[in-house]
Amino acid sequence: MILPPPFPPQTYAAVNQGISNITRKAMVLPLLKLGTLALRTACKPIASRLKKEAGLHPRFRTFIISIAQANHRFTTKMQRRIYGHAVDAVIRPLNEEKAVQAAADLLGELFVFTVAGAAIIFEVQRNARSEARKEERRRMELEEMKKKDELLEKEIVLLRQKLAELEHGLRGQGQGQGFAGWFRFRNGDIKAKPA
């Protein structure tokens, strides 16, 4: 019966994979930072385009003015609460141009924030899938190791049984102990040859 090598080939593959994972992770960090910077840079022109378009269309303009006024009221009330001033005071609305500019800025920042949030969610989901695959691989390797362990235990039991049979057979054959029992020399078995 051929015994397996001291370390299964999967062990060597796992070590090599671990080294490549470390190298890959070391390379991912700068690429991730570069990707984030590129994403922010790409979002800024889109956000400025949204700002321009927001000021030109009449319906959209009235919509964003109402959003800007609501945001202005909310932030002013929050600031008054934080500083301990009266909250029920009348808050003057922004003039139309300031409201459009504030809403356009808010819209641009909201767009950048949404894109960055989507990128983070995508990265988290990708990492979760990767971890799930790794966990599944570990589970399968563990099951394979358990199966090999069970096979080895069965082989050990068989070898012990064969050893016990051999020992029993040797005891039955040999009346004496040691080498004399193996050869079973008797007086009648030895014949002298004529010279």
Detailed description of the structure:
The chain is mostly helical and 195 residues long. It has a domain at 14-146. It is built from four helices and no strands. The protein has helices at 9-56, 58-83, 96-173, 179-183. Helix 1 packs antiparallel against helix 3 (96-173) and helix 2 packs across helix 3. It is rod-shaped. The mean pLDDT is 76.
Q: Helix/strand/pairing class, anyone? A: mainly alpha
Q: What would the average pLDDT be, to the nearest integer? A: 76
**Roughly how many Å apart are the termini?**
48 Å
Rg over C-alpha atoms, rounded to the nearest angstrom = 41 Å
Q: From the structure provided, what is the oligomeric state, counting identical versus distinct chains?
A: single chain
Shape: rod-shaped
Spans of 5+ residues with little confidence (pLDDT < 50)?
Answer: none
What does the largest sheet look like?
none
> How much helical structure, as a percent, in the residues?
over 70%
Number of continuous helical runs: 4
Hey, roughly how much beta strand do the residues contain?
Answer: under 5%
How many strands in all? 0
What letter string, H or E per element, gives the SSE order?
HHHH
Pfam families: OPA3
Organism: Turnera subulata
Protein name: OPA3-like protein
Keywords: Coiled coil
